[in-house]
Amino acid sequence: MSNLFRIRYSTRVNNEYSVIQTDPWMLDSRITYLNHGSFGARVKPIFDYQMELKREFEFSPVNFLDRQPSRVDEARQIVAAFLGAQPEGFGFVDNATTGIGCVVNSISFSKGDEILTTNHVYNGVRQVLTKIANESGCSYREVAIPLPLNDSEEIVQAILGSLTDETKLLVIDHVSSSSAILFPVHEIARICREKGILLLVDGAHAAGMLDLNIDSIGCDWYVGNLHKWVCAPIGAGFVWTSERYRETTHPMTVSHWLYQGYVQEFNWQGTKDVSAWLSAAKAVQWGSEIGWNRIRKHNHALVTRMHAYLIDMWDVEPISPLDGSMLGSMATISLPKYCPSKMDQCLALRDELYLRNSIEVPIFEFQNRGVVRVSAQLYSDFNDVKALNGAINDIYISK
Ligand SMILES: Cc1ncc(COP(=O)(O)O)c(C=O)c1O
Questions:
Q1: What global pTM score does this model have?
Q2: Whole-number pLDDT of residue 13
Q3: 45-287 belongs to which CATH class?
Q4: What is the DSSP track for 239-306?
Q5: pLDDT single digits (tens) 302-360
Q6: Could you state, in order of their start, the residue ranges of all structural domains in the chain?
Q7: What is the pLDDT of residue 399?
Q8: Residue 331 and residue 231: Cα distance in Å, rounded?
């Protein structure tokens, strides 16, 4: 560990957080769960609420779905208000991938147009963008956002320097899945507006993790998940569309309400189980009772401390500032040099930690290095990263 890192760690990190008691989580308490970021986790009352809705549906299916459309609508209003999003532009979908699909399939691309994103893009989204580019004769390109990053201006400059006259659509993460870094979406939106480039923000991790006001960003579309940091059941994502594109943006599954309005189209995407959408509103209320700012503050302070600790223990260079200024509730840290750096070995280590030590944490290759991504949620404890460090020591050092 260089002196520079030590000084920054000791003088700049403010990682105070207090433990917040909640309802019990559905997670197996024997598992050290450091991967809230992938699929989130649910508290028991939200799980029970969804089960109750499913029972209610089975009891009288037509009554539940056909005679009570206002239930989806009420949930939509609650979740949209929580996210600072105009409800007229807010529609539920199953997940963020579906949301991205709705947007890119609603844009008319011409041969020669470019779809641009960054090399922090989520791999599933990369595939959706590649397919649409191939089918519409567009080019697809990823701007390199190299690591380490010192501040968000470096992201802005990298993107600004990559926009061309052909760039029709820019897709950026709000919180990157791989690097866990927050992108300066307001500034990027301002640049896109100036240049007449369409902007889709992939906010799969942002809802619940960040204090969102989607209307204020100034993007054309914003897509997100509610199962991650809002702790809603799986099957709750959303697409927010700016007023300008509401008439031309459609769900992937078109049904009765085609051309009858954005909200109508998204509220009915064929016969489906809407219990996750309804439970998302309940999850918003659950967090409000604790205080969403309190939850965010706790998670951010804890993950900032976890981040600094692992960097110190492993003597590695941080990929973002140690003060946590580019992080929300997750942090990605390079593995120590004696750990693997190739994807298949990283995945094998991930599985070994789960099977031997009951530690669930994502480990993967990113920008030619092996990395681990830790998440902090109300059920997390600082000792979780000590356990991770101990387990990695057992595998590579004490062997
Ligand atoms: C940045 C980002 N975009 C999109 C997705 C896809 O989300 P889903 O699998 O829920 O569609 C993820 C999933 O983790 C993600 O992290």
A1: 0.95
A2: 46
A3: alpha beta
A4: EEE-GGGTTT---SS--TTTTS-HHHHHH-SSS---HHHHHHHHHHHHHHHH-HHHHHHHHHHHHHHH
A5: 999 999 999 999 999 999 999 999 999 999 999 999 999 999 999 999 999 999 999 99
A6: 3-42+291-396, 45-287
A7: 65
A8: 19
* Residue 375 to residue 365: CA distance in whole angstroms: 17
| pLDDT score of 398 | 77
Report which secondary-structure segment, H or E, holds 63. Answer: helix 61-66
CATH of 3-42+291-396, one of 3.10.450.50, 1.10.287.1490, 3.90.1150.10, 3.40.50.720: 3.90.1150.10
Residue 170 near residue 192 (C-beta atoms within 8 A):
yes
Best of 94, 145, 177 for a ligand 1 pocket test (most atoms within 8 Å of beta carbon): 177
Ligand 1, CB within 6 Å, residue ranges: 95-97, 122, 124-125, 173, 177, 202, 204-205, 225
Output the pLDDT for position 21: 83
| Ligand 1: centre distance to CA 121 (Å) | 10
Cα 122 to ligand 1 centre (Å): 7
Distances (CA, A) of 135 to 53, 107, 143: 40, 13, 21
For a mutational test of ligand 1's pocket, the pick from 95, 128, 238, i.e. the residue with the most ligand atoms closer than 8 A to its C-beta, is 95
pLDDT at 22: 84
Q: 209 phi and psi, to 5 degrees?
A: -80, -40
Closest by Cα among 325, 83, 2, 21 to 184: 325
Q: If residue 58 lies in a helix (H) or strand (E), which one and from where to where?
A: helix 44-59
Q: Residue 110: how many CA atoms within 13 Å on its side-chain side?
A: 3
Pocket test for ligand 1, best of 35, 118, 123, 125 (most atoms within 8 A of CB): 125
Can you list the residues of the chain whose pLDDT is less than 50? Answer: 1-13
pLDDT of residue 118: 98
Answer for the pair 277, 72: CB distance below 8 angstroms, yes or no. yes
